[in-house]
From TrEMBL:
<feature type="compositionally biased region" description="Basic residues">
    <location>
        <begin position="147"/>
        <end position="156"/>
    </location>
</feature>
<keyword id="KW-0812">Transmembrane</keyword>
<feature type="transmembrane region" description="Helical">
    <location>
        <begin position="37"/>
        <end position="55"/>
    </location>
</feature>
<keyword id="KW-1133">Transmembrane helix</keyword>
<feature type="region of interest" description="Disordered">
    <location>
        <begin position="147"/>
        <end position="177"/>
    </location>
</feature>
<feature type="transmembrane region" description="Helical">
    <location>
        <begin position="12"/>
        <end position="31"/>
    </location>
</feature>
<keyword id="KW-0472">Membrane</keyword>
<protein>
    <submittedName>
        <fullName>Uncharacterized protein</fullName>
    </submittedName>
</protein>
């Protein structure tokens, strides 16, 4: 099975959106912000889901996920900040707010990268288990797999050392020169 198939891509995008959205929302509420409305929360989830689906064509590692998570944290922070009841509401602004968002994004990227690797390993194990089940049950697989036959390798003849007798290794030692 390929991890990039549409059902798995949708699942990975939903997990990314859920992790990013919930982490950003919890950080927003924890720092004293007002809870966004259901429409604003759904819009945030939808935007992050669409971005994650667009970027989810293949497996991503920590180095690719970290900037994506940081961008999601920043975008969701701005979205939740824009939906604040009063414009003067500036909770957790400054360096401490950005450090918390960077730490959350790095933790989130690490968790997602590990989850991505575990998900790919699980799919591989399920594929092997299913193939073994089909083989043990005696069912014919839908497509016959024939081993590829390669032509036998021939060894190239080694050239005969013609000049072995003509080469003289005699002479003065090297330090003499």
């Amino acid at each position: 099975m390929q991890v990039s198939w549409t059902p798995f891509r949708l699942l990975r995008a939903a997990v990314f959106a859920a992790v990013s959205g919930s982490a950003s929302l919890l950080l927003h509420l924890w720092s004293g912000g007002h809870a966004p409305g259901p429409l604003q929360s759904a819009a945030a989830f939808g935007l992050v889901f669409a971005a994650a689906y667009a970027a989810g064509g293949r497996r991503r590692g920590f180095l690719v996920l970290a900037p994506l998570c940081l961008a999601a944290q920043w975008g969701l922070h701005e979205l939740f900040q824009a939906g604040a009841v009063d414009a003067a509401h500036a909770h957790g602004s400054g360096l401490s707010m950005w450090l918390v968002h960077v730490a959350a994004a790095l933790a989130q990227a690490s968790w997602l990268a590990r989850g991505e690797t575990a998900f790919a390993a699980l799919l591989e194990l399920l594929t092997l288990w299913f193939a073994r089940l089909v083989r043990v049950a005696g069912l014919n697989p839908p497509a016959a797999v024939r081993p590829r036959r390669l032509p036998p390798r021939t060894r190239a003849p080694r050239p005969e050392p013609v000049a072995y007798a003509a080469i003289s290794r005699r002479g003065p030692p090297r330090p003499a020169f």
